[in-house]
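Take a careful look at the protein record below. Let me know whether the structure tokens fit the sequence:
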Amino acid sequence: MSEKKQKRAAAAAKGKSSAEETRFLRGDIGVDGEKIEEELSEEEVDRQKAVEELARGRTYLGREFLTWLLWRTNSATTLIAVDDEPLTGLFVSRVTLRGLAGDATELVARGAGAPYSKIVRGAIRSGLLVHVGRVRFSHAERLYEVTLDAEHLRLRSAQIPKVLSEEEDDRIAERLYLAEKLSEIVDLCFRAFLEVRTSKRWRKDVVPEMLAWLDG
């Protein structure tokens, strides 16, 4: 081997040795140069799988709930009774639909009547479900607005009715009451959905009615 080739080989070996040393110090490889695989116990693996499945299940159930709520609010009829007062709802502004593959398939519709548009109904008919929507609830002559996210059913950007109390302490108490009432309204709607979702009425009555609405 020529002297020039020997120098090249030595430089390459030095570079490789330096890179391996760095990886070893980071804990990426062992003393034998083989990659270290982080081993989890069976219990930890099962726990991770359970958490992932639970998150997916909650998200999908949340999408079914929001899609059911969109259908129910389309007719402008009473959703449920809260404190013996009728509750109605209306999707406003923007709505986001997603497919089973998460972010792989998505449709975003904007506009006052967009949530109930033919495009959105067609997307739901093809398999997408409502993932995010802004809903205006009307209850006891009060209006609430909130963005509902199917991911763990989070409430975002909530707007409560105007506070009428004059004293500061009373105003704070009234704000808290109205915020809690909005949370209660969403919870009660979700319970109403679960009740019908787990009953025989879901396949017998609700699904055919929803399909008829989607086909318009």
